What does this fold into?
Amino acid sequence: MASILVVDDDAVVRRLCGLVLKDEGHDVIVAGSGPEARRILEGGAVDLVLSDVSLPEMSGIELLRSIHQTKADMPVVIMTGFATVDVAVQALQAGATDFLRKPFENIELTRVVNRCLQSLQQSQALKAAQNELTHTVQELRRSNSAKANLIAMIAHDVRAPLVGMRTVLDLMLQRRPQRKEIELMISELHGTACTLTSLLDNLLDLSRFENGRLVLYSQVFQVREIVDECLPGWRHVSPGRPFQVSGDFPPVDADRDRVIQILMNLVSNAIKFSTPGTPIEIFGAVDGDWLQLSVRDQGLGISPQEIPKLFNEFYRPSSEHVRRIPGCGLGLSIVRSLVSLHGGKVWAESTPGVGSTFHFTLPLAPVAAGQPN
It folds into this structure.
């Protein structure tokens, strides 16, 4: 039930109110003056105050105003033996919730207290609903803002490659290029087509994650094999850059295509956000029943404040240099979702100006994990 503070300089009134309200199941605290009541209010939780209008040191009206300076929602019932219209109006104007005329019957005291507590509960429920509504409106505004930003980013990321493709095609139509030029142009078109395909694949995967429609097709395979398969493509995208592969790569039980997608996203980020010519390391290590794979670069690095946000959808670090690099902030969120679907975990370590390392884990195949086949 409620905690009720009874303030009256008459000990008999305090005792009678306490007996009646305790019978109703309430906790009752009593005070004989306004200053004593203030000390009680400052030190503990009180739901309702019953105060006589005539108190020593501080009147009931003054106590009421004092309470509402710090506890604006606190219900206060004013009691008085001088039941004049002026006293009632003065109390209500000062913010009293209700008015009780002495002497009063027990049932009347109970009725007024219950009415005030019911009003308090309704007020609290309304306030909670208003807070929830405010939160919902803010979330909708953030969602609309994120959606608008996403549309702008996707439009930019799709338009730029298409403009490049159109430029190459225009050159091929306007003049007759030599064989070497044609090969170079075709290579550029292929690279642009791969960029667009990757963007669209990420968007489709995001939709599948949100709808719970992405399914894994697990099999036992060697991760080192897919790393070796991807190396020529990475070297083509970033010529002259050393790719260093080391460590242990025992067989895992996972979706082969999705593991390729994870590695492609992490290595592509390492290429984009590091200086050309600096090495990228890919290394593996066994940790219990898991294979931990890591991709390390010697790039821009990430501030400690931004690392927890890296795997959020559409998040991009705030530095100006990063914002000049194309991307819509989906790659790492998809990496997180794919690793999570495998039951693993993903995390990042980074030092600004030195580089970043992204780690993720995959379940080892039963034999590699020491379990019976």
In short: The chain has a mean pLDDT of 81. Residues 106-174 form the longest helix (69 residues). Residues 4 and 158 are 66 Å apart (CA to CA). The chain is about 50% helix and 20% strand.
